[in-house]
Specification:
The chain has about 325 residues and is α/β, with parallel strands linked by helices. About 40% of the residues lie in helices and about 10% in strands. Bound molecules: zinc ion.
């Protein structure tokens, strides 16, 4: 490119910025260098997990661009950010996180990026579960946990998801007041869909006798779901809120015994975790493993462009698979 041409383009871009500034949100970026104007003057949002990114797309609609950091089927508990992630955050107007300590890498990354915008913690106001499952019976103890830890898998209760999208709407509207009415309308529509998801889940589990609603999962991702739909938590293959722990031989034997004693019918594998240990335990206990295409979305969503690539689709999938696996 010739120098003169480049100068012209730069001048045109600057002029466009000034023009956009004139009709835009009226903030202080008209002098250029503003970080909240992505192409087309849409609000540039970085969202950490697939779930939160999907929420932002639903609430932001056409008025935002969303950069999703964690791709589908990637374990969020031990995520390590890339240089591209740092770049995306430094170009963003706002960063939206799931919260409750799920994104252990985020604070450091924000600092490295020199990001000065606002961080929306979508978990604000959600009633948190303590780490581990409160089971009166013996069996698996949560000895792997650091006592005070809270369960970060809040989105599996659709009512918590409603709080999350309301927080996101508030954050988007604050960053881009010109589009606040659109965000509010999107929030209303999407919240109605979350209410419907919750009602559908309730109706699906109502068909299964209470004493058959027994769940063995791959890791402890479904505490909020279990609480909401009154399931019984029997145990998990990875007895931990993150995915780092392993069962000892004794715990493995205990889990096998508990599966047999409770008449649990299946172990549910997860899309973002290898099903190997689940298969070994199921073999010993003589129950089936539900995996492959039927694996649950515990920490992630399905591939982009598929129905399960959205929060609503993934949660519908989970309920269908669990209800079928429990003999519904
Ligand atoms: Zn998890």
């Amino acid at each position: 490119m010739k120098h003169g041409q480049r100068t012209f383009i730069a001048a045109a871009a600057a002029a466009a910025l000034v023009l956009l500034g004139g009709c835009g949100s009226g903030d202080d970026n008209a002098a250029g260098g503003g970080s909240d104007a992505s192409p087309g003057n849409k609000l540039a949002v970085v969202a950490t997990t697939p779930e939160v990114a999907d929420f932002v797309r639903n609430i932001g609609g056409n008025d935002v661009t969303v950069t999703q950091i964690i791709k589908p089927n990637v374990d969020p508990h031990d995520y390590e950010p890339t240089p591209a992630d740092i770049q995306a955050i430094s170009n963003a107007a706002i960063v939206v996180k799931s919260g409750v300590g799920l994104e252990k890498w985020l604070d450091q990354t924000i600092e490295s990026a020199g990001f000065k915008g606002s961080v929306v913690d979508s978990s604000q106001g959600v009633a948190l579960r303590e780490g581990g499952h409160e089971e009166g019976e013996s069996g698996q103890e949560e000895s792997e946990h650091e006592g005070e830890e809270h369960d970060p898998h809040i989105w599996h209760n659709p009512l918590n998801a409603k709080t999350m999208v309301a927080n996101i709407e508030k954050g988007l509207a604050a960053a881009d007041p010109a589009h606040a009415a659109a965000f509010a309308g999107n929030l209303k529509n999407y919240s109605a869909q979350l209410d419907k998801l919750d009602a559908d889940n309730e109706a699906a589990f109502a068909k299964i006798p209470a004493d058959q609603r027994k769940l063995v999962t791959n890791h402890d991702a479904f505490g909020y779901y279990i609480d909401r739909y009154k399931l019984q938590f029997v145990g998990s293959v990875i007895p931990s809120l993150d995915t780092s722990a392993e069962l000892s031989a004794q715990q493995l034997n205990d889990l096998v015994a508990k599966i047999k004693a409770t008449g649990t019918k299946a172990i549910f594998a997860e899309s973002s975790l290898p099903p190997k240990s689940a298969e070994a335990i199921a073999n010993q206990a003589g129950v089936k493993v539900i995996s492959g295409e039927d694996a649950l979305f515990g920490d992630s969503l399905g591939a982009e462009g598929t129905p399960e690539g959205t929060y609503l689709g993934a949660e519908q999938h989970n309920t269908q698979v669990i209800v079928a696996g429990l003999g519904g």
